[in-house]
Amino acid sequence: xxxxxxxxxxxxxxxxxxxxxxxxxxxxxxxxxxxxxxxxxxxxxxxxxxxxxxxxxxxxxxxxxxxxxxxxxxxxxxxxxxxxxxxxxxxxxxxxxxxxxxxxxxxxxxxx
Amino acid sequence: xxxxxxxxxxxxxxxxxxxxxxxxxxxxxxxxxxxxxxxxxxxxxxxxxxxxxxxxxxxxxxxxxxxxxxxxxxxxxxxxxxxxxxxxxxxxxxxxxxxxxxxxxxxxxxxxx
Lengths: 112, 113
Known about the structure:
The structure holds 2 protein chains of 2 kinds.
Chain A lengths: L4 E3 L2 E4 L5 E6 L6 E7 L5 E8 L2 E4 L8 E4 L6 E5 L8 E8 L6 E2 L3 E5 L1
Parallel strand pairs in A: 2-11
Antiparallel strand pairs in A: 1-3, 3-8, 4-5, 4-9, 5-6, 7-8, 9-10, 9-11
Chain B lengths: L4 E3 L2 E5 L4 E6 L7 E7 L6 E6 L5 E4 L2 E6 L4 E6 L8 E8 L8 E2 L3 E6 L1
Parallel strand pairs in B: 2-11
Antiparallel strand pairs in B: 1-3, 3-8, 4-5, 4-9, 6-7, 7-8, 9-10, 9-11
């Protein structure tokens, strides 16, 4: 069974540019989560989808971040415009229920 | 705000030695505790999900215990091997309105041959 995949693995952009991160969850997993780890800090929750619906977006830092999950399959997280403090590793996780979450390898975003 | 504390932050252990580290959390905010093993540039790997006070779980040389009344969990590694080198992450699911896991900063374990 394929795991959670994320694309790209790395992204380097300049401040003010736009970046879109993609997550493909494990097939059949209705729950999809986005998290972020800023260097030196803990992994922090951003938001949770159940199928295509946003269930909880309490962790989204501000309105420069937009997450979508059209059709309830893959999800995208867009940062527009990117700021220096957005640098970090963005993780996606999926789960068939609300127990174990299966994580992807993350996208390392560097904003210069 | 839910705080999950892990100690120590980093740990150097000689190959073959056993080791353990701690995850502390507020005992009043508890639904489930998750341990993950994470190597940089790879996916964090789920080790254990623990829900009941007194739970003990084991996976090979790695085991974990849970005390929800006093708010801590221990992770033990017996006979450390170089492949055990990783960051071990503890996370809490507190239920209620927050859907995501709350993570500690992790314990970075380095096994020295």
